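Re: the request from the purification team.
They wanted to know what the chain is likely to look like in 3D before they choose a buffer screen. I agreed to run a prediction and write the result into the notebook, where they can find it.
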Amino acid sequence: MAGRPVVVDLDAPRLVTPDGAKRMRSRVVILSPGEEVGEHVTDGREELIVVLEGCATFIGGGMEVEARPGQAVYVPIGLAHNMKNKGNVPARYVYVLALHADHKDGQGRGHIHAHKMGGH
């Protein structure tokens, strides 16, 4: 039997993954000016970072990519990365982690992409 859809509120820095989610995790993050998450690797998972407010700088793979509201950054499996707010206003974003179906050793390869999100 299929699960039920869930609507979540993105107004607070809380876990937004609904109870019962099996192959994903997400959270709203707010970084104050100058604040950073710290370098990390999301072992065995691809990550999508969607900027909602302010600017967040993605640092990883020898690159720095500034993402603005309405942009998303794709992070491949196994890539060490950091998010930093280099601006002077808070940056708010949602990250979504998904277990990669073909994951075996956490050594996925890929490129960093920043995309402008289109309206639907």
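For the purification team: Residues 24-116 form a domain with the Jelly Rolls fold (CATH 2.60.120.10).
Please add any questions underneath this entry.
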